[in-house]
Amino acid sequence: MKTTVVRTTLEGLVAKSHAHRAKQGSSVFYTAAAASEPAAAEPQQEAVAG
Q: Is the pTM of this model over 0.85?
């Protein structure tokens, strides 16, 4: 995987406010943005009494 693909993807996430960019010296660090709503990993199933 090329670094340009990774950088472009990360910059896209920054543009959509899904990640934050911080520059320290000549390095750039990316961190995930805090989720406003927790995403459901799997749909929850309800038990049916019968």
A: no
